[in-house]
Every structure is written in structure tokens, then in C-alpha cells.
């Protein structure tokens, strides 16, 4: 038996970041940056108007009540020299003409005279206008050469917007972790539409892991179901090795029963067992090993919630380490109902979340925590994590929470500040 923290340390210690590859920005959503991105240009890339109005040079002649001739008009995308003094009609996003340093909003002016085509010829300012008013200066968002995104950042739509604005068409990303899934059990029926024979059940662990790993950015190379015997399991392991996977996840046959053959099978395969059994509920019999041929193996118990816990709290840290993302930040909520966990075990409880009247995040464990129950998992919002020393937990105390998904949806800034 090994503690959860020691187990995670043993899992992650030998791992290294996977190699990088080049990816088009259009295909980069969900990928992890392999290198820090440095801005190739400034944002904005030129001084421009923040609103529709009139560009002018601020000073004594630009006070409220002053009158000005309008020399030309500039829309976004227009270039060229604007001749003459006075003011220039300008639209939002248009480059500020040379010699001008402020913009007055069109609604803060009065048109005194129009040209035959309806364009303004002479206006009066209703307000004083100061230097830099309503002007977006070059580089005020991102200076040229600034570090804008750190290695290890997961590219989401917000990052795509930034990279696209910088004209970045390709990025270096970490290769997706390649994963093979092996589900054990002669009772498992892999076709969801197939009829079940007596004693059979539909395989839910395989589809769950495939979906969860895919959403977390892994490349699921295969998902097999094998019998409760050694040789089919070893053959599936061999196929995974030949496919060049980084991680093998198996479910079932890992405890102490007569048909729990996985520990012996892994030793027969020449694997180095890192640990077997972690004091936690659910999922205590979990086993981790490393094959001499390369891949890490995580053998999870077959009960659905043991698989979900193994995926969220063991597989997810492994995937993050392989992608160079480091550990997740700890999130907390207020416990809404008292809990009395068994001493010495780390408990993972499915829970619902809500904000109370004071804006505090509340977490309530669902009523039915048995590890075979899938419906409460589908209705839950998060996991509550009670560590081995939690003891009796009163309502109102802060507790650790974690998202249901392997990839944490809430991104907190815990590393270097890359803002300009």
C-alpha cells in the first residue's frame, strides 16, 4: 500500500515531456504549446481611432466651442496623406493620420456646414479634447517581441484569437500522448446495440475512457475488450507496445480474486511494478507499472466509479506531465453537508455545486456514492476530495474540489506572468 501523494510522485518522476511537432493554427485547438510564443509584431500594429469621430491635434485650438475645417476622411484600411490643418473625419479602427494625436467622438461635435455630397466641411467641438483621447496606441496590447503564451499552455479559442491577431499561422505543440485501452471481462458486450446474453453487461468503461481521454487531448490508438485470462491480455499489451503508445490503461482483474490476473500478467511481461493499491475510495486496488519496452501501464479496477477516479486523479496528472503542463491548481468550495469519511482513506465524492446568496461556492456530495452507480456521476458537477487525515467534516468547512473532466476547464494563472 502506498499513499496517494507518494503514488503520484512515483508515476510522474520518470516521465518526460513528449516531442514537439508543428501544427497549423486552424488545427491547434486543444493542443499544448511546446515553446513560448513570442510576438512577431505589435498589437495594435499602428495608432488608430477608438471610435468614429474626428482626428485632430490636441492643444489650445482644440477646446470646446472651437470651430474647424474638415480636411478629408479616413476609414479602416485607408492609407495615404491627409493634407491641411484642422480636423480629419475618421472611423473606428482607421490609422491615425500623421500629425494628429487625438480623436473626438462624432456625437461630441456639431456639424456647421456640409459639402454638396453630404460629408462634413466645418464642425464645432462640444468638449475640450486632450492628447491621446480615444486613440489606441501601437503596442499597448502586445509589444513586438513580448512573450505572450508560455510553453505548456493549452490552446483554446481565446489563444487562437490572440495568435491569429499576431499573424501566427503555425505553432509548435507537444505531440498528443498515445494511449491504448484494454478492458477485461468475459461479461462485457462491446456493441451497444447488440442484445445481451444472460450474465452480460454493456462495456461502459471503454467508451468513457475513450471520450475522456480524447477530450483531454490524448490520441486513443485502440480500445480492446479481452477475456479474463492472461494470454489475451498479454497479446493486447504486445499490440499496444508495437503501436508505439505512451500509456496503456486497463480496467478490471487487478484486485485479489481468483480471476484478477493482471498483476501476475504484468510481471510475466517483464513490467516493473511501481505500486499496487492506494488507500482511497473508490479504486483502492489500482496498479501502476512500467514496461521495459517503454509504455507506462495504469491498471484500474473495473467498477465504473473506480475507473472514473483512476482516470481523473491518476491518468490526468500523467497526461499533464507528458505535455509539460505541471500540476493543477487546488480549487476549493464550502462543504454543504457534514461527512464522516473512513479514517486513513482518501475519499473521492461526486458532488453538485452552486453559488449561495453570499456568492460562496457550495459543494454537496450526492446521496448515492456506491462505486457501481453511474447515474449520480452523470448528474454531478465535480469531485470533492477528502484526504486521509480529513476526519469528521462539518458543514461549512472548505474542501478541495476537482472538475469531472480530465482536462480542467477553469484555468488559473499560477506560473510566470507573460502579460506585456
TrEMBL record:
<keyword id="KW-0479">Metal-binding</keyword>
<dbReference type="InterPro" id="IPR036425">
    <property type="entry name" value="MoaB/Mog-like_dom_sf"/>
</dbReference>
<feature type="domain" description="MoaB/Mog">
    <location>
        <begin position="180"/>
        <end position="321"/>
    </location>
</feature>
<comment type="pathway">
    <text>Cofactor biosynthesis; molybdopterin biosynthesis.</text>
</comment>
<keyword id="KW-0808">Transferase</keyword>
<dbReference type="InterPro" id="IPR005111">
    <property type="entry name" value="MoeA_C_domain_IV"/>
</dbReference>
<keyword id="KW-0500">Molybdenum</keyword>
<dbReference type="InterPro" id="IPR036135">
    <property type="entry name" value="MoeA_linker/N_sf"/>
</dbReference>
<dbReference type="InterPro" id="IPR001453">
    <property type="entry name" value="MoaB/Mog_dom"/>
</dbReference>
<dbReference type="Pfam" id="PF03454">
    <property type="entry name" value="MoeA_C"/>
</dbReference>
<comment type="function">
    <text>Catalyzes the insertion of molybdate into adenylated molybdopterin with the concomitant release of AMP.</text>
</comment>
<dbReference type="Pfam" id="PF03453">
    <property type="entry name" value="MoeA_N"/>
</dbReference>
<comment type="similarity">
    <text>Belongs to the MoeA family.</text>
</comment>
<dbReference type="InterPro" id="IPR038987">
    <property type="entry name" value="MoeA-like"/>
</dbReference>
<keyword id="KW-0460">Magnesium</keyword>
<dbReference type="Pfam" id="PF00994">
    <property type="entry name" value="MoCF_biosynth"/>
</dbReference>
<dbReference type="InterPro" id="IPR036688">
    <property type="entry name" value="MoeA_C_domain_IV_sf"/>
</dbReference>
<keyword id="KW-0501">Molybdenum cofactor biosynthesis</keyword>
<dbReference type="InterPro" id="IPR005110">
    <property type="entry name" value="MoeA_linker/N"/>
</dbReference>
<protein>
    <recommendedName>
        <fullName>Molybdopterin molybdenumtransferase</fullName>
        <ecNumber>2.10.1.1</ecNumber>
    </recommendedName>
</protein>
